[in-house]
Amino acid sequence: MDIEALFKKLLSADWFVKAFKFIKSNRIFVRALSLCLTGLLAVVISIVAVGITLGFDVEYSGKIIATVQNTAVFENAKSIAAKNISTEDAYDNIQTPRFALTVTVVDKLDSAAAVADAIIENTGDFVRATALSINGEQVACVTENDLSLLLEARRTAFYIKGAQNAASFTDKVETKSGYFLKSEICDISEAEKLINSLSVKTVSSVTTDVTVPYTTKEVKTNTQPCGYNEVTTAGKNGLTRKVETVETLNGSEKSRTKVSEQTIFTPVTKVVTIGTAPVKLSAAEKANVTSAGFICPIAKGKFVVTSYYGDGRNHKGIDLGADYGVAIFAAASGTVTYAGYRSDYGYSIVIDHGNGIQTKYAHASILCAGVGEKVSQGDMIAAVGNTGYSTGNHLHFEVIVNDVRVNPAPYIGLN
Q1: Which has more pLDDT, 23 or 281?
Q2: Is the pTM of this model over 0.70?
Q3: Which of 20-24, 139-143, 403-407 is least confident?
Q4: What is the mean pLDDT of the segment spanning 299-304?
Q5: Would the CATH topology of 207-247+256-274 be identical to that of 278-412?
Q6: What is the end-to-end Cα distance of the chain in Å, rounded?
Q7: Where residue 22 falls among pLDDT bands split at 50, 70, 90?
Q8: What pLDDT, on the 0 to 100 scale, is given for residue 30?
Q9: In this predicted model, what pLDDT tens digit does every residue of 108-130 receive, in sequence order?
Q10: What's the fold here for domain 278-412?
Q11: What is the 3-state secondary structure (H, E, C) of the chain?
């Protein structure tokens, strides 16, 4: 009840009316009463002017948290506080306060909203926190503010570096900040485990530059001797730019769709010019036939013997070291039964001379005769190289008699 209402009640009281009639019938008191009433009215006017009123101090959790006009204000505040607390039984957890009548100023009275804030701040069971909900169910509640950072780290964990990425959780994930009961709060590590168990779908736009290897084309010319080998057009790889959409689930690829493919530049074919004109052996060299009917496969003066047959390492031929591209001649007439590349011999040729005798020419840089071709003694069949299992340019020459490799030195006059 405020002072103005109290004053009105006073004026309407029976005892006050009787007193007023008595004073009126005794005019001696009229002047004095008039002065008293004037003074009393002045006091009342002053009280109303400054806003002095009766109120109630609210004692909550052992201290005064607010001053309200009446107890109904606290009840309204309690409802407001419960709505702002993210706990179903929040209303029941708000304590019952004690009220103490007090004289105050109207401007000092607290609103229901202000009292609601004071209730929350002074209720020890309520703390400011953030709740994590998955598919509508609250699974964790933490006081730390880094819950959103953990969620973002998990959501972006499977981004493909250098790609345009977009990711989302396969479950409905929500966070809500507010006041919660202390009993609902869990350790941040528990929330982190739950977050790291969430499945993430990532869609990435991946741009890849793919190298297109150049091809090699051999061009033969009879204007250059057999053994001539020159790159007349350098090869250059091409480049293709491919854009794909890649979908992953927790980093495991589920689909890949090509969006576009663009040729940045086309490959340039490498052109190698190969000479086919036969190199002629001098008449003297051709005449220098051994008793076995063979000639040396490399012209004298153009080689040195770098390894003999046996040679302490079970070497089954003779090695003639020579410059790269030096001509190799057929030691005797016959038919080419092999012309190709082997990992151990490199480019090599085998000639069948009949009567169970064969010769082999290995590590060549180029072959000038093909399988089935009949060659005459002294015809150029290859050029010295360093292909296969080889150290340095040389010709590895073998003589094979009835499928047994024998010492070739006597056959070519290098005893």
Answers
A1: 281
A2: no
A3: 20-24
A4: 92
A5: no
A6: 139
A7: low
A8: 52
A9: 898 888 887 787 777 767 788 89
A10: Glucose Permease (Domain IIA) (2.70.70)
A11: CCHHHHHHHHHHCHHHHHHHHHHHHCHHHHHHHHHHHHHHHHHHHHHHHHCEEEEEEEEECCEEEEEECCHHHHHHHHHHHHHCECCCCCHHHCCCCEEEEEEEEHHHCCCHHHHHHHHHHCCCCEEEEEEEEECCEEEEEECCCCHHHHHHHHHCCCCCCCCEEEEEECCCEEEEEEEEEHHHCCCHHHHHHHHHCCCEEEEEEEEEEEEECCCEEEEEEEEEECCCEEEEECCECEEEEEEEEEEEECCEEEEEEEEEEEEEECCECEEEEEEEECCCCCHHHHHCCCCCCCCCCCCCCCCEEEECCECCCCECCEEEECCCCCEEECCCCEEEEEEEEECCCEEEEEEEEECCEEEEEEEEEEECCCCCCEECCCCEEEEEECCCCCCCCEEEEEEEECCEEECCHHHHCCC
Please give the Cα distance from 270 to 407 (Å, whole number): 42
From residue 255, how far is each of 135, 203, 240, 249, 252 by CA, in Å?
26, 10, 21, 10, 9
Strand order in the sheet with 52-60: 63-68, 52-60, 98-105
Write the pLDDT tens digit of every residue in 360-396.
999 999 898 999 999 999 999 999 999 999 999 999 9
Separation of alpha carbons 91 and 138, rounded Å = 19
Domain extents in the chain: 3-50, 54-124, 129-198, 207-247+256-274, 278-412
Question: What is the per-residue pLDDT across 35-58, written as a single tens digit (0 to 9) for each?
Answer: 555 555 554 454 455 578 898 998
| Burial 211-233, CB ≥16 within 10 A → b, else e | eeebeeeeeeeeeebbbbbeeee
Q: Which CATH superfamily is domain 207-247+256-274 in?
A: Resuscitation-promoting factor rpfb. (2.20.230.10)
